[in-house]
Specification:
about 425 residues, Growth Hormone, Chain: A
Length: about 425
């Protein structure tokens, strides 16, 4: 694998596209979770079911979309995925009923994963070469976090711009009207990003040919499945992704436990997004200079101890400083793991030309939290309203962090020494 086959702006476009495609299905509901529940007339379980529908479609998309990334160049598929996702935003902005909303999330499961996911991971691995995998994936995830944070800031600003009265006196109609403007503006930006990718994210033709297979065979799939690193990454990503899904509840925690209003709760969600780019950049550079697999273990240890702070119930509306400190600890662990779990593919001896196939197979198991995490979190929150439900959610995070730590440690034992 040659070092840096593509220039810096290639990675910047991947970062921009990599987060823009998930703004509508995930980032808006993370930043505006209380508003989404109210505007669509949902409870936490019903919103979780929407994510489950997304996850079911995504599972099939990972399986069949992965090998396509080894057959076709990434630019066109990424652009088309962005445009199709933005089209769904027009439906979302009209506040459809629960049934249509579930269908919409299934549609988004197809547009964001089948055409988009594996090409993005493969293109990032190509950019990183043999020496900069930590930096490539750290900057990718951190950069995506920055893009998400900027979308969050802009969304909160747009939302508050269309609220003329005190937020506590806002009616449901006014709240929906403001949120509709947020959705439409975000959809327009996603379309624009698609055009930037289409026209500017071009690779050298010779470099493109080196990473593409004419045909994916069963023997090549079996070759990927024989690698221990593939099976371990399935477990590692599954556990890390549960942690990422649980960060969705921080804005709701701010409302339910810290007693913040809608705008303050959304600001907590946005604060969380700003932590991600810092962690991604720092851990990426650090991992390349030391040992990528070691820092993957550390990230799960940090997440585990951070989750215990919330799970034990010592955080309340009278411990604001502890609340922000605990968010910082959990987010550091979760975002560090996200930045590194694909960065260790090179160390795990996964062939570059079969990256898409490997990503598809790994993701088939690794991203199953898209199916079960939403309903599980919703059930825990609805079954034990208030602070108790949130504590149960963080006990769940502690369990998965421990399992992930064990798998990451074994990966380190197998592939850690240079």
């Amino acid at each position: 694998m040659h070092k840096n086959k593509a220039p810096w702006y290639f990675l910047l476009l991947l970062i921009l596209a990599g987060e823009s495609v998930f703004i509508l299905p995930f980032v808006l509901s993370r930043v505006f979770r209380p508003t989404v529940l109210e505007a669509f007339g949902l409870n936490n379980v019903e919103l979780g079911i929407c994510f489950t529908v997304y996850g079911i479609v995504a599972m099939l998309s990972y399986l069949f979309g992965g090998p396509l990334a080894d057959k076709y160049p990434p630019r066109k598929s990424i652009a088309v995925a962005l445009w199709m996702t933005a089209l769904g935003g027009l439906v979302y902005a009209n506040f459809p009923g629960y049934t249509i909303l579930k269908i919409l999330y299934g549609y988004w499961g197809f547009t964001t994963i089948f055409i988009f996911w594996a090409p993005m991971i493969k293109a990032t691995r190509v950019w990183g070469g043999t020496a900069s995998q930590g930096k490539a994936f750290g900057f990718l995830d951190g950069g995506r976090g920055l893009v998400g944070a900027l979308f969050g800031v802009m969304s909160v600003f747009v939302f508050s711009l269309f609220i003329d009265i005190d937020i506590s006196e806002t009616t449901l109609y006014e709240s929906k009207s403001a949120f509709k403007n947020v959705i439409l503006i975000c959809s327009g930006i996603v379309v624009l990003v698609g055009f930037l990718v289409w026209f500017f994210m071009k690779m050298d033709r010779k470099a493109e040919e080196e990473i593409i297979l004419d045909k994916i065979t069963i023997s090549e799939i079996k070759e990927v499945l024989r690698l221990p690193s593939v099976w371990l990454l399935m477990i590692i990503i599954l556990c890390a992704y549960v942690g990422y899904k649980i960060t969705d509840v921080f804005s709701l925690y701010a409302r339910d436990v810290m007693l913040y209003d809608q705008v303050q709760s959304a600001q907590i969600g946005t604060f969380l997004l700003f932590i991600r780019p810092v962690i991604g950049a720092l851990i990426g550079v650090l991992a390349d200079r030391t040992e990528t697999t070691y820092w993957l273990v550390v990230s799960f240890v940090v997440t585990f101890f951070g989750s215990l702070l919330f799970a034990t119930g010592i955080i309340s509306n009278s411990t604001t400083a502890l609340f922000f400190t605990s968010i910082l600890i959990v987010a550091t662990g979760v975002y560090a793991a996200r930045s590194l779990y694909f960065a260790v593919m090179e160390r795990g001896q996964i062939p570059l030309m079969l990256t898409g196939t490997a990503v598809g197979l790994i993701s088939l198991i690794g991203y199953t939290p898209d199916i079960f995490a939403g309903p599980a979190i919703g059930f825990l929150l609805e079954n034990s309203p208030g602070a108790t439900g949130h504590q149960h959610v963080f006990w769940l995070l502690a369990l998965f962090s421990l399992i992930g730590c064990i798998a990451a440690w074994y990966y380190f034992r197998l592939y850690g020494k240079k």
